[in-house]
């Protein structure tokens, strides 16, 4: 039941799609254009958003680069103080750094200092000199045995935090050592990687990642080779930077409001090399994010800058244009769809009206043609027995009125011929009356208990004489009783029509009749081995006035199989045929044994697939 319902729904849907194909094509085209236009507008919005982001990235990169260039220039100026003086005293250095206003003009610098370049055997003398300058607890740390040391001798501003750095040997730590070595080799400013500043102690509340920028100081004249630099090095002017304080003082569009910046030490963005991050939420957790990563060289040290957008960036750059275009296009597409469908429906209605007129005209023509053909065939079929009857009556009339004695045998043959023609006329008239009763629904069945096999054998015996006349062997195979509630007269009419057809079209070949069935249905097969019926005529032959052969070669009104099918279906059964041209035909009748009511309780089943008859 579900399968039938699904098939019906599928067929109805396909028919609907075929009728409205133009409307749906217009709708699809409109939707495609709308999607394309919306995508184009959205792409414009996205490009504008990306351009704003790229501009902010460029501004942020330039701002950081300018800031670091300014700090390098400041340290180079500080080196000039040392280069222009034979010996810079501590108070002079303090006065100079105070004039720079470091805390206001150079945010992020923890301190500016000078690291003296010392040989290993000069540490004791250096410590003694520093203590004599008012630093009684001064000492070099860590105290490691090496040929050279870079010891912090001056640091400003000189507060409690920065005072911790005095005496620290910068060559004792690998990252600082590498930067000092690079500055010594090149003679240019050199920045360290990520370090922990000496001024930062465990337990401090505000511990930040940092780096140190070194500017080498040489004796005059300025060296030009690596060997001369190693020989004339006096020390390093340096600046110690706290990254958070350094970057937070920067300004570029969207920084911290819509765009975040993360800075990593090195050419790759690794979490353990993080110098600074302005974001509190990981970018991957956001629904949408724009990201830009680039590398910046700061005094020979590579920094990786990662710019990412915040959700507020998309909120601020949101545009209603794509939505407007999408809604407008959707409404236009629906409007075009409705207009097109109305036009299609109007056209379809006109075509249906035209087709209906053509159908009615065709049916009328067909009805006239069938009527004319029927009248022609009926007139022919009726004229034949009437002509014969008229001739026989004229002969009888002459015999009766002749003077010679009557020839009784001849008279008897004439009467028999008249009787046969009357029987033929009666049969033709009965067929026409049956068609009238079936068409008007006035056919009534007189049901009784019948054994189908016995009824078939009885009718076969009636056809023995006719079968012998055409030299046909008629055999009945009904091995088991098959009793049901049927109308005897009408069932005889069905079997008679099938046997008559088998003898008429069998061409003298044997005719087999089989009776089979089960507890619910009885099955009657009548098989001939005559001319057969083409596949395209298999259903048509059961229609009214239809014939599979020419009426010139075979007589009849074309009503026998029509009446047969109507009578079978009136009993709740169905009839079909299996045939191949030139190989004969098998008519199969299936009847419910319980009577018409049992057969009507379930829909007639479709014909069985073609195959050999069941005998």
Summarize the model shown:
50% of the residues lie in helices and 19% in strands. It is an alpha+beta fold and 615 residues long. The longest helix has 81 residues.
Question: What are the SSEs and their pairings?
Answer:
Layout: H1 2-19, H2 21-83, H3 90-100, H4 102-105, E1 109-119, H5 123-132, E2 148-156, H6 160-163, H7 174-186, E3 190-191, E4 210-218, H8 226-232, E5 233-242, H9 243-248, E6 259-265, E7 274-277, E8 291-298, E9 301-309, H10 311-316, H11 321-401, H12 408-440, E10 447-451, H13 452-462, H14 464-469, E11 474-477, E12 483-487, H15 488-505, E13 511-517, E14 521-528, H16 560-570, E15 574-580, E16 584-592, H17 596-600
Parallel strand pairs: 11-13
Antiparallel strand pairs: 1-2, 1-5, 3-4, 4-5, 6-7, 6-9, 8-9, 10-12, 13-14, 14-16, 15-16
Helix pairs in contact: 2-11, 11-12, 12-16, 13-15, 15-16
CATH topology of the largest domain: Beta-Lactamase
Compute the number of strand runs: 16
Structural class: alpha+beta
Tell me, rounded to a whole number, the average pLDDT: 82
Largest sheet entry:
5 strands, antiparallel
Looking across the biggest beta sheet, what order are the strands in? 2-1-5-4-3
Tally of contiguous helical segments: 17
Number of structural domains: 3
Low-confidence stretches: 550-555, 600-615
Give the full name of the CATH homologous superfamily of the largest domain: CHASE domain
| CATH architectural group of the largest domain | 2-Layer Sandwich
Round the Cα radius of gyration to an integer and report it: 58 Å
Distance between the termini: 33 Å
- Estimate percent helicity: 40-55%
Name of the CATH first level of the largest domain: Alpha Beta
Name the beta content range. 15-25%
- The geometry reads as rod-shaped
């Amino acid at each position: 039941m579900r399968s039938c319902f699904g098939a019906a729904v599928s067929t109805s849907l396909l028919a609907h799609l075929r009728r409205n194909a133009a409307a749906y094509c217009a709708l699809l085209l409109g939707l495609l254009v709308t999607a394309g236009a919306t995508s184009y507008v959205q792409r414009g919005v996205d490009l504008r958003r990306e351009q704003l982001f790229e501009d902010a990235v460029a501004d942020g990169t330039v701002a950081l680069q300018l800031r670091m260039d300014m700090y390098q220039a400041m340290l180079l100026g500080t080196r000039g103080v040392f280069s222009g003086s034979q010996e810079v005293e501590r108070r002079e250095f303090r006065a100079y750094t105070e004039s720079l206003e470091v805390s206001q003009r150079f945010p992020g610098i923890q301190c500016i200092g000078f690291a003296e370049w010392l040989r290993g055997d000069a540490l004791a003398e250096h410590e003694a000199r520093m203590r004599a300058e008012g630093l009684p607890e001064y000492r070099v740390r860590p105290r490691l045995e090496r040929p050279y040391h870079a010891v912090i001798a001056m640091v400003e501003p000189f507060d409690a935090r920065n005072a911790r750095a005095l005496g620290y040997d910068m060559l004792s730590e690998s990252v600082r050592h590498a930067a000092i070595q690079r500055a010594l080799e090149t003679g240019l400013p050199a920045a360290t990687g990520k370090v922990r500043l000496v001024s930062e102690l465990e337990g401090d509340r505000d511990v930040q990642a940092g780096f140190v920028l070194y500017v080498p100081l040489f004796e005059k004249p300025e060296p030009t080779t690596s060997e001369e630099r190693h020989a004339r090095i006096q020390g390093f002017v340096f600046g110690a930077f706290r990254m958070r304080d350094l970057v937070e003082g920067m300004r570029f569009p969207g920084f911290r409001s819509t765009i975040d910046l993360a800075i990593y030490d090195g050419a790759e963005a690794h979490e353990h090399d993080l110098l600074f991050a302005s974001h509190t939420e990981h970018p991957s957790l956001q629904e949408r994010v724009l990201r830009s990563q680039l590398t910046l060289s700061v005094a020979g040290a590579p920094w990786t800058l990662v710019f990412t957008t915040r959700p507020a960036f998309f909120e601020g750059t949101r545009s209603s244009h794509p939505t407007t275009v999408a809604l407008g296009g959707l409404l236009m597409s629906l409007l075009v769809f409705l207009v097109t469908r109305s036009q299609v429906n109007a056209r379809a209605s006109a075509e249906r009206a035209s087709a209906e007129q053509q159908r009615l005209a065709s049916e009328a023509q067909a009805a006239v043609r069938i009527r004319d053909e029927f009248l022609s065939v009926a007139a022919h079929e009726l004229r034949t027995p009437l002509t014969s009857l008229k001739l026989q009556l004229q002969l009888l009339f002459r015999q009766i009125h002749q003077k010679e004695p009557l020839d009784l045998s001849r008279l008897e043959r004439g009467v028999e011929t008249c009787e046969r023609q009357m029987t033929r006329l009666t049969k033709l008239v009965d067929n026409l009356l049956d068609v009238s009763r079936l068409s008007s629904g006035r056919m009534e069945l007189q049901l009784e208990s019948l054994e189908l096999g016995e009824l078939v054998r009885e009718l076969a015996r009636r056809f023995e004489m006719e079968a012998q006349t055409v030299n046909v062997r008629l055999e009945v195979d009904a091995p088991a009783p098959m009793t049901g509630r049927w109308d005897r007269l009408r069932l005889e009419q069905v079997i008679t029509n099938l046997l008559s057809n088998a003898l008429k079209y069998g061409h003298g070949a044997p005719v087999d009749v089989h009776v089979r069935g089960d507890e619910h249905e009885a099955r009657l097969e009548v098989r001939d081995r005559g001319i057969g019926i083409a596949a395209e005529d298999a259903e048509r032959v059961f229609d009214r006035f239809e014939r599979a052969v020419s009426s010139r070669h075979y007589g009849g009104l074309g009503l026998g199989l029509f009446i047969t099918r109507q009578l079978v279906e009136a009993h709740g059964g169905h009839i079909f045929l299996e045939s191949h041209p030139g190989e004969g035909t098998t008519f199969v009748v299936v009847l419910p044994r319980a009577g018409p009511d049992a057969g009507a309780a379930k829909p007639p089943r479709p014909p069985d697939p073609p195959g050999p008859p069941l005998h």
